[in-house]
Amino acid sequence: MIPANFDYVAPAGVDEAVRALAEAGEDAKVLAGGQSLLPVLRMRLAAPTTIVDLRKVGDMRGVREDGDAIVIGAMTTHYEVQRDPLVAEHAELIKLATDTVADPQVRHRGTFGGALAHADPAGDLPAPAVALGAEFVIAGPSGRRTVPAAEFFVDFFTTALQPDELLVEVRVPKHTGWGAHYEKFNRVAQAWSIVGVAACVRADGGTIAEARVALTNMAATPVRATGVENALVGQPANAESIKAAAAHAAEGTSPTADGNADERYRKHLAEVLTGRAVAAAAGS
Amino acid sequence: MRITVTVDGTEYSDDVEPRMLLVQYLRERLGKTGTVIGCDTSNCGACTVHLDGHSIKSCSVLAVQADGSEVTTIEGLARDGTLHPVQQAFHDNHALQCGFCTPGMIMQSVDLLADNPDPDEKAVREGLEGNLCRCTGYQNIVKAVRDAAHHMRPGAGPEAERVDERTPSHAAGGE
């Protein structure tokens, strides 16, 4: 199938893009890499009146260092994130999760910001963003505002972005020297996560000094597994204490039931995968 | 909307509807039916082409998004009647049965070898995870890609597709 008709604009800058969104009204849609939007348009699950294509907005692409954070432009492709030395050094968790997104063709086109703004509960990047305490820089008609990851994701496919706002970049606090792992459970290559676990651990000697863990697809939005984090801190990085901490993984979650898994199985997966993710992140 | 795209070494300039998919443009406007449409969900990878040197699924890109870009399709790989080494390796290793997935498999394999000139079996399988084959069970496809890697060192990929390296007979023709 092919998409329904729409008006198309390709603004050259962020301000111009925000103006275009404001003019187009509520039924406009932002096109970044298009790897989620195009299939939805083609199947006519969405029929926006106007598409605002960001391909000419050059200053939204690339990764830079800014004090104690790295800043990832929303239009940076997954392929670029995977190979970026700043991401690898300071936010390895994001690199590892990006490695598991879809397939090579999709990673060539799909963007970091697009995947986050899409806010699919089974998407692999929201949980790492929440785990690392990322901040979302949003441009709108009245200027820019910054929203913490925990408040950016509001519901299924719903974020703090207003119809006339644009996600410009994401500030990720540096987690230099932390061990990281993204454990994804799915049935076949390129399938969505049934459950995913993003884990980042700072070990000091043999002891876990700090831990950040967040879950993919265990609720409408990514869930920070604070119970697991609290149980890990101060413990030896061994199988026994990791297993005990992972038993808290399903706390506060409300997973959906679908053809892949019911609620109980997802909670079981959350515990098992958390154990694996933390163990890999802690290098034990 | 007016777009200008270089496809397989020839520059085309056309008016297209914004909603036209790149794969439709290639097949219906340019007649490049070597690139096929396999699914409606961007799963199968049969429509894989290279856009500015990287593999993409042309069913998930609008023609207008390719404005000003260079596209290589399966029809642009052979040189003067000689198959590209990856095409030859698919032939030699019987890496196809019905052949429908083959254009996409070959385009993705060329991309994979550009990134990794000597992939082991696991790397080939992961590199082709976005391409589905319902006939072969993948065994001979993996064999073909590794065979091609041995034949084409130090690697093919985007550099081998550059327009300025083309022979006049390939650059000519079209609009």
Plain-language structure description:
The complex is a heterodimer of chains A (284) and B (175). Chain A folds into 3 domains: 7-53, Uridine Diphospho-n-acetylenolpyruvylglucosamine Reductase, domain 2; 58-173, Uridine Diphospho-n-acetylenolpyruvylglucosamine Reductase, domain 3, CATH 3.30.465; 179-282, 2-Layer Sandwich (Enolase-like, domain 1). Chain A is of the alpha+beta class and 284 residues long. Helix content of chain A is 33%, strand content 26%. In chain A, α10 (226-232) runs antiparallel to α11 (239-246). Chain A has helices at 14-24, 37-42, 78-83, 85-90, 92-99, 104-109, 112-118, 126-131, 149-152, 226-232, 239-246, 263-282, and strands spanning 7-9, 28-31, 50-53, 63-66, 69-73, 135-140, 143-148, 153-155, 158-159, 166-173, 179-185, 195-204, 207-216, 223-224. Chain B folds into 2 domains: 2-76, Beta-grasp domain (Ubiquitin-like (UB roll)), CATH 3.10.20.30; 85-158, [2Fe-2S]-binding domain (DNA polymerase, domain 1), CATH 1.10.150.120. Chain B has helices at 22-29, 85-92, 102-115, 121-127, 139-151, 168-171; strands at residues 2-7, 10-15, 48-51, 54-57, 70-72. In chain B, strands 2-1-5-3-4 form a 5-stranded mixed β-sheet, with helices on one face. In chain B, β3 and β4 (54-57) form a beta hairpin. In chain B, α2 (85-92) crosses α5 (139-151). Mean pLDDT of chain B is 90; it is low at 163-175. Classes of the chains: A alpha+beta (284), B alpha+beta (175). At the A-B interface, α2 and α6 of A face β4 and α3 of B. Chain A: Keywords: FAD, Flavoprotein, Oxidoreductase. Chain A: Residues 1-177 form the FAD-binding PCMH-type domain. Chain A: It comes from Labedaea rhizosphaerae. Chain A: InterPro entries: CO_DH_flav_C, CO_DH_flav_C_dom_sf, Diverse_Substr_Oxidored, FAD-bd_PCMH, FAD-bd_PCMH-like_sf, FAD-bd_PCMH_sub1, FAD-bd_PCMH_sub2, Mopterin_DH_FAD-bd.
